[in-house]
Design goal:
224 residues, alpha/beta, Spore Coat Polysaccharide Biosynthesis Protein SpsA, Chain A, two-stranded parallel ribbon, disordered C terminus
Length: 224
Amino acid sequence: MIVLLVLTDGRRTCIERTLASAADKLHGPITRRVIHDDSADPAYRRWLLDEFPTFEVVSTGTRSGFGGAIRSAWSYLAQTAEYDDAGYVFHLEDDFTFRQPVYLHRLAAVLELNPHLVQLALRRQPWNDAERAAGGVVEQHPEAYEEHRLGLLGWLEHRLFFTTNPSLYRRSLTWHGWPEGAHSEGRFSHELLEDEALRFGLWGGRDSGEWVHHIGDVRAGSGY
């Protein structure tokens, strides 16, 4: 069972496109849907409740930034764990659309059989200058990715970074807590990598292409 967790920061057009695309392309045993709103805008919160009635809409009530929003969302999931039996979280920021169908039960099966994998993320298009120059995320450091297969299922393992791009991870990861302060994503990756047995994963084989498209022009939050 899977919780769909969507983090948003006030961009109506973005989240409309993201959730429409998810409804079309994201398949699997989603038993609970949560939107975490970091806009601190009461009108936006009311709009979310009206537009997406199948979602729980939660917020800290103030702008808490990138890291603060994740800490708040994870805390909410931990506090309400008794209300559902979800073992996984599909993490989705409000500025991604899906380019291929994603069958979440397949990702969950791979995580179930590979406890050393922290997450299975969906590959996006090259975003920064280095990725564009190399031709893609994987192409930037091809030697760092090791391809694995389980029947018809494929994924790439690496020890480079944890990503908050669209991904599936175990709900138990939310108990770890998210770092405070700047560069929280990098510091969270470093904390996890202290365990030499842990690895991160990208869904699909080396040649499977991009699964999601980042539609946000700029980072809207703070505290990355």
